[in-house]
Amino acid sequence: MEHLTQTFHDLIVHLGYAGLFIVMFLGNVGTPVGTEVVMPTAGALAAHGHFPTLGALPAWVLVATVGTVAEICGATTLYAVGYYGGLPFVHRWGKYIGFKEKQLGRVHAFYERFGRTTVFWCRFIPFVRGVASLPAGLSRMPKRWFVTYTALGSVIFCFGLTYLGEMAGKNVDAIVASLHKVALLVAVLVVLAIVAGIVWWRARAKGRGAVDDAAA
Fold it and tell me: pTM to 2 decimals?
């Protein structure tokens, strides 16, 4: 994993904006890139002149913009795979990513109930953010809502972390270490909230079923 991370870093250093686009695109189609580290690192590189500017726009703004566009393109690609591949895709490839046919109905129901906001919040969860677009596509979430929430989350994510990296400059390593801790905490809290919501939903459905049986 460390060698892979170094490869992505070198790609950005040598190819500049094009390398950044490639790395962030890959990070949103399931590749373990570590996008929460890439963006602040790119911001720090921008602060040291590794990225050219465009007119009056500072380099970090261009870096954040490229990262955001790459994220949207990558996430939309994975969404399209799920949306148009559907059940045949799950049947043929689902076992390689731990996704089974019987889970499709559950995923569809989950995204129908929580989908729009889930897509947004998944933009801030490490690892999950790179694969969250697939179940959104499988559940056939409306395209306009998927793109809207994905874009909104990606803008906040990319611009926020890039600016943080640009401000940190040479101290980016310390910032990244803190980001890992915060990201882990956020991931745990989100997972707990989702589990609590599912438990509550099932308990409520069970209660309604009991009332219906009694009435019958």
Answer: 0.71
